[in-house]
Amino acid sequence: MASAQLRQIPRKEVGKHNQPDDLASWVIIDSTVYDLSRFKAMHPGGLSVLLDPEVAGQDATDAFFALHRYEVLERPPYKRLRIGLVEGEKPHLHGRIAGQLSKVPYGEPTWLSDGYYSPYYNEGHRKFHEAVRQFFDEIVYPDAIDREADGKRPSQSVIDKMTALNMHAMRMGPGKHLQGRILMNGLVKPEEFDYFHELIITQEFARSSLRGYGDGLLGGKVIGLPPVLNFGSEELKAKVVPEVLEGRKFICLAISEAHAGSDVMGLQTTAEKSEDGKDWIINGSKKWITNGTFADYFTVGCKTEDGFTVILVERGPGVETKQIKTSYSTTAGTAYITFDNVRVPVGNTLGEEGGGIFVILSNFNHERWVMCCASARSQRGIIEECLKWVTQRKVFGKPLHSQAVIRSKLAAMIARAESAQNWLENITYQMCNMSYRQQAGKLAGQIALLKSYSTGCGQDTARDAVQIFGGRGVTQTGMGRYIEHYHRTIPFDALLGGAEDVLADLGVRQALRAMPKDARL
């Protein structure tokens, strides 16, 4: 029943329905009157909670929001319990509203906050952001919740709707692959699309998604397709790229093995030429490969006679994939892959034979930058959850934020998220103004350090958030479910794309390499 159709009920009338044996047990939540008569026996928290003198027949708004998220009130079974509005009052609280900017302090990046300015974003970026947020809130978020829970791969209907907007192509960043495409219903021209547009997509995706689903919704494409785009033959690109960017086929990056992770040159999967020299024959295995369970193409790192070579393998005879269960949902399609005498045309070689290390290293900057975008935005979402919680949670008769130790944790969380976002936007601006070769020379160290810093900040924020939410922060349902999820899955950010310690060391080594010979104290 819509609010306009609900009858007006005086508060005194509500107060009369508060007895244990009353056939009509009423409560008020946000000026809305609920009749709990038929619900009392089914209440998950037991009957005694509803019979509490401060709840039965009373305004139970504070008591309700100390235990439940707003979304509970929006579920059909509970909507049916509404019988009226308190006379002369209107509901004023709300939960998640699709497409709307958050008014919670630090709930949005500065450039999206009222009264603040940014030199990086123009009006076109703002209109683009508005449309992207609406899309992710309405189309992606519901599917993310369902698929994270049931473990199935992201729905093809969502993938198709992303295709209609050329979202898959935009997630690859600026480039020739955008030419001739209508982006986001014409909101931005291909030649005007820049890294800030891609940053917007990535951050809105992180905001409206969950960690496993975030990788499952073709995260493998973001890291597996660039080697094809940048190093594949024209014939190979003409076949593969349209299929992948239109969401008809899926691709993943298959580098890591049980024997080698960051040590790319230690890979043991082999590729040998056939006797006629026309095919590669590949043998070996790959592990922890995102989207591997449902991929049609695999960008595979192999040991060859000349060193290390990257080859595009199409799913077929000899290719086997098995699901690996990790800390996040199986919707990510994390796989163990075996190659048993798999024959692949030599024309599927990406880059030079023996030159695979350059192919992979050229891919790292963008992959790590994408992860920095997602990390900074995910931390902000946790801060928003915490600020809401400390405001509505009461301890010792006062809001939780009355405790100095809680405010100290919030201060640290905010500082980490803001510093990561500002460093990220600075690097993104450099990317917009540097050639690909300049980026490789000047930004590899900066991006490596930012990723190490961002994911380290994320782990600190996850730990602080659990302390703020207490037991709810380690419970997969209810008030702290997003905190629990973030705390459980944050290690993925710290490992994927390069472990924190390895990247921090890379950043310092890059800096030392640029040290001027004449610098002295």
TrEMBL record:
Record's keyword annotation contains Heme: yes
PROSITE patterns: ACYL_COA_DH_1, CYTOCHROME_B5_1, CYTOCHROME_B5_2
Listed CDD domains: ACAD
Listed cofactors: FAD
GO BP field: fatty acid beta-oxidation using acyl-CoA dehydrogenase
Domain (Cytochrome b5 heme-binding) ranges: 6-87
Pfam family for this entry, one: Cyt-b5
GO terms assigned for molecular function: acyl-CoA dehydrogenase activity; flavin adenine dinucleotide binding; heme binding; metal ion binding
Keywords: FAD, Flavoprotein, Heme, Iron, Metal-binding, Oxidoreductase
Tree of life domain: Eukaryota
GO cellular component, one term: cytoplasm
Family: Belongs to the acyl-CoA dehydrogenase family.
Protein's name according to its UniProt entry: Peroxisomal acyl-CoA-dehydrogenase
Organism: Gymnopilus junonius
